[in-house]
Amino acid sequence: MSRLLEVKGLETRFFTQDGVVHAVNGISYDLNEGETLAIVGESGCGKSVGVMSLLRLIPQPPGRITAGQVLFGAGDDRKDLLKLSDEEIRQVRGNRIAVIFQDPMTSLNPVLTIGFQISEALMLHMGMDSAAARKRSVELLELVGIPRAAERLDDYPHQFSGGMRQRVMIAMGLSCNPQLLIADEPTTALDVTIQAQITDLVKRLRDEIGMAIIWITHDLGVVAGLADRVIVMYAGFIVEEAQVKELYANPRHPYTLGLLGSLPRLDETRAHRLTSIEGLPPDLIDLPKGCPFYARCKYRIDICAVENPLLLPIGPGHKVACHRDISKVAPTVVDEVETV
After folding, report:
1. If we measure between CA atoms, which residue out of 105, 90, 104, 96 comes closest to residue 56?
2. Which parts of 112-236 are beta strand (E)?
3. Structure pTM?
4. Cα 79 → chain centroid
5. Phi, psi for residue 171 in degrees, rounded to 5
6. 284 CB contacts (<8 Å, ≥6 apart)?
C-alpha cells in the first residue's frame, strides 16, 4: 500500500483571554491507502482538533495552526494541505477528503431536504446536473441502507431517526468517492444497537470502496473490530501508536493501560472491578514541564517530572512515549490485558 497522508509536527493553538491553549502539540503520523487508523483518548485530548486541522476547519480566531505539514496524495499530486489557497482546500473538502461529524442534527441543514444536501456536493465537485445528482443521491441512500430511498429524498432531517440521519451523513461523505473518510465519533450520540449497525456499515463500505479511514473515538471497544492501527492521544500529544492487536496484547504506556483496564469484559465475573485513572488531565493553558501524564501515573519516576519523553519505536510498528518499560514494571497488570 502506498502512503496517502503524512502529518509532520502539527501544532494547533487557541488564543483566548485566559491564555494560549496548547490543543495539539507537534503530532506526527501517516496513513496508507485503504488503511483504517483509530485515534483514541479522553475528551479534550486533541483528537478532533488534530484532524480538523488537516482540513483547516479550525475557527480563526481564536484557533491557529502554528506549525507542521500535512502531505496528502501520491506522486506529483502530493501537496501540503496547510499551504493550499482557500479555493484549493475547498476542492479537497468533501471531494477527496470527507468528514462525518459526531451529531448529524447539527451538521445537516434543518431547512433543506436531504436530497438537496446530497445533490449539492455532487453538482459542485462532480459537475453533475440536477437530474443526474438526484439519481446518484438515491443510489447513495440505498447504499447506506435507507429504505424507500427515492421517496425520502424530499424529507427533512427532523423526519429521520438519529441512526438514519447518521446514515445520511455517511451517504453525503461517500458521494464524491473520497480517498479518505474522517469519522469524528460518529456513533457517540446513538444507542448501542445503532452504534453496531453504523460501525458494520462503515466497515462494509470501506471494503467495497477501498477508501482510507480515520476513526476518532474514546471507546476502545469499538476500535478492536474496526481499525488496523491505533494512535493514543493525551493532552495534545501522541503517547502510543501500534497495530490494533499489538496494542491490546502489549500496551506499553500507563495511560493506554488505564484505558484498557476501564473496559467492561464479557469473560470476567461480576467480582471483577473496572479500574479507573485517578486525577484530572493537565491544564492545556499551563502544561507541565515534564510528561503530561505525570500527575496521574502510578509508575512515574523523577525524570518524568522534568522531561517529556519522545515517541520512540520499541518494536515493529509500535511506538511509545514513556521513560519506563511498563511490561517490566507491572507485568501482572499487562498480562491481564489479552488480545481482543
Report:
1. 90
2. 180-184, 212-217, 229-234
3. 0.87
4. 21
5. -60, -40
6. 21, 22, 23, 44, 235, 236
Q: Which long-range contacts (CB under 8 A, 24 or more apart) does 311-315 make?
A: 311/28, 311/237, 311/238, 311/239, 311/241, 314/252, 315/246
CB 184 within 8 A of CB 214: no
Q: What is the mean pLDDT of residues 33-38?
A: 92
Place of cell 453504523: 198
φ, ψ (nearest 5 deg) of residue 19: 140, -175
Q: Please tell me whether residue 95 adopts helix, strand or coil conformation.
A: coil
Give the whole-angstrom CA distance, residue 72 versus residue 91: 13
Pairing of the two strands 36-40 and 212-217: parallel
**How confident is the model at residue 335, as a pLDDT?**
45
* Contact call for residues 211 and 179 (beta carbons, < 8 A): yes
Name the strands in the sheet holding 79-80, side by side, starting at the edge strand that comes first in the sequence: 19-32, 3-16, 63-72, 79-80
The per-residue DSSP string of 270-301 comes to: TTPPPP---S-PPPTTS--SS-TTGGG-TT--
What is the pLDDT at residue 334? 42
Would you say 181 and 169 are in contact if contact means Cβ atoms under 8 Å apart?
A: no
